[in-house]
Each structure stands twice: as C-alpha cells, then as structure tokens.
Amino acid sequence: MRRKVVAGNWKMNGSSEFARAYCLEISSHLPVDDIDVVLFPPFPYLGIVALSDVAMGGQDCSVNASGAFTGDVSTEMLRDVGARYVLLGHSERRVMHGESDELVAQKCLSALKADLIPVLCVGESMQEREAGAAFDVVSGQVNAVLSVLSKAQLKRLVIAYEPVWAIGTGLTATPDQAQEMHQFIRASIANVDAEGAEVVSILYGGSVKSDNACELFAKNDIDGALVGGASLKVEEFIAICRARQQV
C-alpha cells in the first residue's frame, strides 16, 4: 500500500525562533490520520524539529561516511540527530552544485544503507519540456537510481516529481500533466519491479498550494506533495496536509 506523504522543504530559510514557533503550531494539529508529514529544515535547525512530533529529514547527504569533507553531512550524522528521511537530487543541487544522476544514485544508496528514506527529486526544465525531452530526462534520472538498488531497497524509495519550471515560479503543472508524468514514473519502476511500483510513493512538487492541492491529490498516481515556499507558512502547510487527508 502506498503511503500518503506531505513534505515541506524549507530550503535556506528560517531561524531558531521560526523553527520553534512552527513546530509548536504544527504539533498541535498532528497527527494527521494516514499521512506521513515530514519537514526538511536547514541543517542547523534539525535539532529543534527533532523535539517536535513531526518526522524530519536532511536536505542533502554525503556519499562518504566520515573524513576530510568540510561542509558535508553524513547519513549516520543525520540518523544520529533523529532524521528519518533525506532529500536528494533536488534541481537546485543538480544545477547549482553540479550533481550528476550517478552521484544522486550513490547518495540514495548510502541513505538506504543507513536506514534513511531517500526522497528522490526528478524533473525537467522548461527548455527540455519544450524540446519534447521531458520524459527522457526524467527517465534518465529515475533509472540511474533504480539501477543501483535491490528490489528490497527500491520499495523504501520515495520519488518527488518537481518540474524545474514550476519551482518557485508560481507556475504549476496541470493535474493532467502531473498525472501523466507520475504514471510514466510508476511504469518505469514497474519495468524493474512490478510489486515495487505499487509500493513507492510518488509526490508532486512545484508551487503546490492549498488551493490546488485537492485537484492534484485526486489523481491516481499522485500520492502526496513536496512543498517548497508554501511550507514556510505553517497554516498553509497544515491546509495542504488536510487536503491530502480528505482526498
């Protein structure tokens, strides 16, 4: 059975005061039945979120276990502070930090070995979509990861489809566009493991808000959302969680 997941990616935003107030507010509205609610705060605030009732994760991890890797954070360090998830392959990491499909795949493997749940981000740019290459791009990103995982590991993966052109732009893929890509991703998983395809949760990300959440969640292959900017407003994020509960 696929889990319903609503995750909030704070990116490089917030403060200790913000994190404490946010977690106090959201904890008063949890648990939300049958939904996994996850927050991805910046690394300095993981300890604050860990004290709340919300599951949390790191925004990235290293493929290395330890050593002279200044600025990196290992999977074991994330586990040590209470993280259950880790966000990997976000387009901002791929574009701004030059992360390749192969590196993202190795990070997913490292996360799974450390008993973390990787949330793998995939998605195409506007130029790639307009060139008719959207499915090829997403297929390459997904298959790079599937190729290094066992069937047991695959079943613990979460995938987030985030069209790059819809991240922070106010643009959103239509529900039909999102469903089409989610269905394609699930079919790609089924080519490797049909059973796994029915277990892996696939989230939509890209300007998700409370006023479009229900329409997105009504689609068969959209299991939840990875929320960016809207997750910084706790009332808005809670409303999106409620929308996932209702649909």
From TrEMBL:
Give the GO molecular function terms.
triose-phosphate isomerase activity
Primary place of residence?
Answer: cytoplasm
Instruction: Give the keywords, sorted.
Output: Cytoplasm, Gluconeogenesis, Glycolysis, Isomerase
Q: Which Pfam families match?
A: TIM
Catalytically driven reaction(s): D-glyceraldehyde 3-phosphate = dihydroxyacetone phosphate
Answer yes or no on keyword Zinc.
no
Q: What residues make up the catalytic site?
A: H90, E162
Q: Where in the cell is it found?
A: Cytoplasm
Q: Which family would the database say this protein is a member of?
A: Belongs to the triosephosphate isomerase family.
**Name assigned to this protein:** Triosephosphate isomerase
| Native source organism of the sequence | Pokkaliibacter plantistimulans
Q: What is the lineage of its organism?
A: Bacteria, Pseudomonadati, Pseudomonadota, Gammaproteobacteria, Oceanospirillales
Q: What gene, per UniProt, encodes this protein?
A: tpiA
